[in-house]
């Protein structure tokens, strides 16, 4: 394991709703190494974006962090003052949002938007900030002369690259990417991810990469964490997780998408519906959809455990509970 940059420990995030308190993220713990790309997978509503926003402390009411630690280079950023967090955010940890296409301000030129981020966090003059912005555009293969343009004057793929350039503006050590390319066609999607990967190799930042596209995730990550109903239920090297899944939910995910090579098996999918977080059962949260349950699955809560070197799962079949 590489030296950890980020260590998330027992992170809990709740939403206060009219129907009650919903724990959307429950005791999530993971490490992200320096220069590592970690994927976060799982079906819609399992809590991926809630984790991402909480790490940036950009979650808004009705969400609140109800427990845990987010250690960045050993310091718990949940304890930072709001001012300290403002300095930290974007310069140390930045984010490409799920709705990145809408993340740019439509009434400001890109020059204004870049300069705003750069000058707020550094002592650069306007001229220096503009030069830095021009360099950032070159990094994402957009001609620097386009800096004077408004977001609507760019194509969708270019806007996506602009958002990535803004995330890179202050040389952060960690970039969180929540579905950074979902709205784009597959060719552009791959080009952008290859670009990000090349930048990562050059600048050495770490990435937390969230996408619904498992084949892309396997290709562009070192390890993958799988979430189910607010919990992290498996973490494994990307090369192994789909060929030898441990958790029955991961097995279901692996059986839901076709292999890129070889004969095409019948896709199996995962029966049943996602768990209603207002009705969490005793024991394992996946019990109602699992074909392999044993007695303890209905009694004992699960806990992510290292069951082999570099292989973590919360499933009782592997943890021995
Ligand atoms: N403002 C809110 N109020 C109440 N519950 C919320 C709110 N936002 C999200 N949730 C709940 O939190 C849970 C996690 O949502 P989140 O957006 O983190 O999921 P996700 O894994 O990112 O899903 P997707 O893949 O669709 O983006 C869901 O059950 C969702 O219903
Ligand atoms: Mg999301």
| Beta-strand percent range | 15-25%
Largest sheet: 8 strands, mixed
Q: Structural class of the secondary elements?
A: alpha/beta
Q: Looking at the structure, what is the overall shape?
A: globular
**Tally of DSSP helical segments:** 10
- Which strand order spans the largest sheet, edge to edge or round the barrel? 6-7-8-3-9-10-12-11
Order of helices and strands: EEEHEEHEHHHEHEHEEHHEEH
Rg from C-alpha positions?
Answer: 20 Å
CATH fold title of the largest domain: Rossmann fold
- Total number of β-strand segments? 12
CATH superfamily of the largest domain: P-loop containing nucleotide triphosphate hydrolases
- Binned, the helix content reads 25-40%
Average per-residue pLDDT, rounded, comes to 93
CATH architecture of the largest domain: 3-Layer(aba) Sandwich
Q: What are the bound molecules?
A: adenosine-5'-triphosphate, magnesium ion
Structural description of this entry:
The structure is a single chain. With 321 residues, the chain is α/β, with parallel strands linked by helices. It has two domains: 4-92 and 172-185 and 203-281 and 305-312, 3-Layer(aba) Sandwich (Rossmann fold); 101-171, no CATH class. The chain is built from ten helices and twelve strands. The protein has helices at residues 48-55, 82-88, 110-121, 126-139, 156-168, 186-203, 214-220, 238-241, 248-254, 316-319; strands at residues 4-17, 20-33, 37-41, 63-72, 75-76, 93-96, 174-178, 206-210, 223-228, 231-237, 305-308, 311-313. Strands 6-7-8-3-9-10-12-11 form an eight-stranded mixed beta sheet, with helices on both faces. A four-stranded antiparallel beta sheet has the order 2-1-4-5, covered by helices on one side. The mean pLDDT is 93. It binds adenosine-5'-triphosphate and magnesium ion. Magnesium ion is lined by residues 48-49, 98, 178. Adenosine-5'-triphosphate binds at residues 15, 17, 22, 24, 42, 44-50, 62, 98, 277. One of its GO terms (biological process) is transmembrane transport.
